[in-house]
Design a protein that fits this description.
By secondary structure, the protein is an alpha+beta fold. Keywords: Signal. This is DUF1795 domain-containing protein.
Length: 202
C-alpha cells in the first residue's frame, strides 16, 4: 500500500496541474461538443388518450390491453415456454430497427403468486440476455384486475431496462406481458400498463 505522504503528494500535484490548466489563457477550442452533435434519446410515444389511432386492442386470454398500432406480430412461439407470442415495435428512425419487443403468454388458473414469479424468473433468465430483477410492485388496477410489475436490467452491459407484468382476473387466470428494448420509452410503458384490464367475472 502507498504511504499517506505519497498519496498526499500525488493529490497536491494533480491539484496544481488542474489549477494551472484552469488559469491558462489558451482555452481548448473543441473541448465540448455542441448539443446538436450529441445523440438525443427519442421522444416518449404518445399514449392512447393523446393518440388513439396509434394504438390497437389485443387480448391475452380474458385480459384486454392496448399495443402500438405499428407493432409487428403476433409471432407465434412454440419453444418459449409460457410465452406464446411476441411483437416487435420499430424505432423512430430507420437505422434504429426494432427498438422494443413485447412477449405475451398465460399461466393456468390456480397458479400461486410465488409459482408465477418463479416461472417468470426462469423464462426471462433463459430468453433475455443478462436478465436481473431489480424491483417488484403490486396494485389493484380496478375492481377486477390485479397487477404485479417486475422491473429488470438486461442487455450486453446489463444497463438496459425492461418490465414484466403479471395480471390476474377474478377467474384466477394469469397473463404475462414483458416489454424490453434498447431505450426507455415511458409513454410506451405507461400506455400498455394503464390499458390492462379484465371485465367483472373474468
Amino acid at each position: 500500500m502507498r504511504r499517506r505522504t505519497v498519496a498526499a503528494s500525488a493529490s497536491a500535484l494533480a491539484l496544481i496541474g488542474l489549477l494551472t490548466a484552469c488559469g491558462s489563457s489558451d482555452a481548448p477550442s473543441k473541448a465540448l461538443a455542441e448539443i446538436s452533435d450529441v445523440p438525443q434519446p427519442p421522444s416518449p410515444r404518445q399514449g392512447p388518450q393523446e393518440d388513439p389511432s396509434g394504438w390497437q386492442e389485443t387480448t391475452i386470454g380474458a385480459m384486454r390491453l392496448l399495443l402500438p398500432a405499428d407493432a409487428t406480430g403476433p409471432t407465434a412461439h412454440e419453444d418459449w415456454g409460457q410465452y406464446t407470442s411476441s411483437y416487435d415495435i420499430p424505432g423512430q428512425s430507420e437505422e434504429n430497427g426494432a427498438a422494443h419487443r413485447i412477449l405475451t403468454g398465460q399461466l393456468s388458473a390456480g397458479t400461486s403468486a410465488n409459482g408465477a414469479r418463479q416461472v417468470v424468473d426462469r423464462l426471462n433468465s433463459l430468453l433475455i440476455e443478462n436478465y436481473v430483477e431489480i424491483d417488484r410492485i403490486s396494485w389493484d388496477q380496478d375492481d377486477a384486475t390485479g397487477i404485479e410489475r417486475i422491473a429488470f436490467y438486461w442487455g450486453p452491459t446489463g444497463a438496459a431496462c425492461g418490465w414484466t407484468w403479471l395480471t390476474a382476473g377474478n377467474s384466477g387466470e394469469i397473463a404475462i406481458v414483458t416489454l424490453f428494448g434498447s431505450t426507455v420509452d415511458d409513454g410506451l410503458r405507461n400506455g400498455i400498463e394503464e390499458s390492462m384490464t379484465y371485465s367483472e367475472g373474468e
